[in-house]
Design goal:
Layout (H helix, E strand, L loop, with lengths): L14 E4 L7 E5 L7 E6 L14 H9 L3 E5 L13 H12 L8 H4 L6 E7 L1 H10 L18 E5 L5 H7 L1 H10 L7 H7 L11 E6 L7 H13 L4 E6 L15 H9 L1
Parallel strand pairs: 3-4, 3-5, 5-6, 6-7, 7-8
Antiparallel strand pairs: 1-2, 2-4
Helix pairs in contact: 5-6
Length: 267
C-alpha cells in the first residue's frame, strides 16, 4: 500500500481563512484561473486522529483547482486534539459547512467573491464520513445545534467510513469510530444515531461512492453496506468500485481513480 501521496509536496493554497476562533478552524482556498461553477469542499481523512491534517490533500486540491473547481479544504479538531472528538469534531464540521455555504451573506464565499452555482462535498476515509454527515444535517432532530435546512448538491466519499456502526463493528484502525464517539455502537446508540450517516437515511442528496477493490484500510464492504441501505431508503446513490486500487490511490491525482473522481464531481 503506497502512502507516498501523504508526503508529496504541492503548491501552497491561494489563501487561508478562518471559520472560527480556534487554531484548527481554518479553510485553505485554491482558486482556478476562471470563475468556478462548482465549489468542491474537500474533507481530509486520517481516522479522525490529530496525526493527520489537511496538508496531505495538497496534491489533490491543487489538481482539482487546475481542473477548474474552486476548492476549499477545511481543518477541524480531531479526537485526540483539544476539544475534538464528541462533540467538538461535529461542531467544527457544522461550522465550516455553514461558513462555506455560497448563500451565506457573511460567509467565506461572499467575503472572497466566489459565486459557485453548486457545492460538492468530497471526503476521503474519515472525511467521507464527515462529508456525508454534513449532507444529512437536515435529518437531525429538531433542536439539534447541528441541524440545518441547507444541503449540498452532491457528495462523493472516497474510500469513506460511511457506515459508522459497521466501522465500529470491524474495529477499523484500533477502534477509531469508538474513539471518535467515546464508545462503541452498543454502548452509545444515541450518539451513533446522530453521528452515523447510515442512521440518518434517506439524505435526499445524490451520492457517488468511490472505493478501491484492494483497500484493506477501509474495506469496500463499508461502502457496499451504505449503498445498500441508501438504495433501500430511496436515495439516489451509486457505488463505483475501482479494480486494483488501494486506500490512498483515491486521493492521488496521478492514479487511475482521477478520471472517475472528476466525472463524479461533474455528474
Amino acid at each position: 500500500m503506497s502512502r507516498e501521496i501523504l508526503t508529496r509536496t504541492a503548491p501552497p493554497p491561494d489563501l487561508t481563512t478562518a471559520y472560527g476562533p480556534l487554531p484548527e478552524q481554518v479553510v485553505d482556498l485554491r482558486l482556478p484561473d476562471a470563475p468556478a461553477r462548482t465549489l468542491v469542499v474537500l474533507v481530509h481523512g486520517g481516522f479522525w486522529r490529530a496525526a493527520y491534517d489537511r496538508t496531505h490533500t495538497g496534491p489533490l486540491a491543487d489538481a482539482l483547482a487546475r481542473a477548474g473547481f474552486a476548492v476549499a479544504v477545511p481543518e477541524y479538531r480531531r479526537m485526540d486534539s483539544p476539544g475534538g472528538g464528541w462533540p467538538g469534531t461535529f461542531d467544527d464540521v457544522a461550522a465550516f459547512t455553514d461558513a462555506l455555504d455560497p448563500q451565506a451573506p457573511d460567509g467565506i464565499c461572499a467575503r472572497h467573491g466566489l459565486r459557485p452555482e453548486r457545492t460538492v462535498l468530497v471526503g476521503h476515509s474519515a472525511g467521507g464520513h464527515l462529508a456525508l454527515w454534513a449532507a444529512g444535517r437536515h435529518r437531525l432532530p429538531e433542536g439539534s445545534p447541528w441541524r440545518t435546512g441547507r444541503r449540498p448538491d452532491r457528495v462523493v466519499p472516497l474510500a469513506g467510513c460511511v457506515s459508522l456502526a459497521l466501522c465500529d463493528a470491524l474495529g477499523l484502525d484500533d477502534g477509531a469510530a469508538a474513539g471518535l464517539l467515546g464508545g462503541g455502537a452498543a454502548e452509545l446508540p444515541d450518539r451513533y444515531a446522530l453521528a452515523d450517516p447510515a442512521a440518518l437515511l434517506p439524505l435526499g442528496v445524490p451520492v457517488t461512492l468511490l472505493h478501491g477493490v484492494e483497500d484493506v484500510t477501509v474495506p469496500p464492504e463499508v461502502s457496499r453496506d451504505y449503498a445498500a441501505r441508501a438504495g433501500r431508503a430511496g436515495d439516489p446513490v451509486e457505488l463505483v468500485e475501482l479494480p486494483a486500487l488501494e486506500h490512498f490511490a483515491l486521493i492521488d491525482p496521478d492514479s487511475a481513480a482521477w478520471p472517475t473522481l472528476l466525472a463524479a464531481i461533474n455528474n
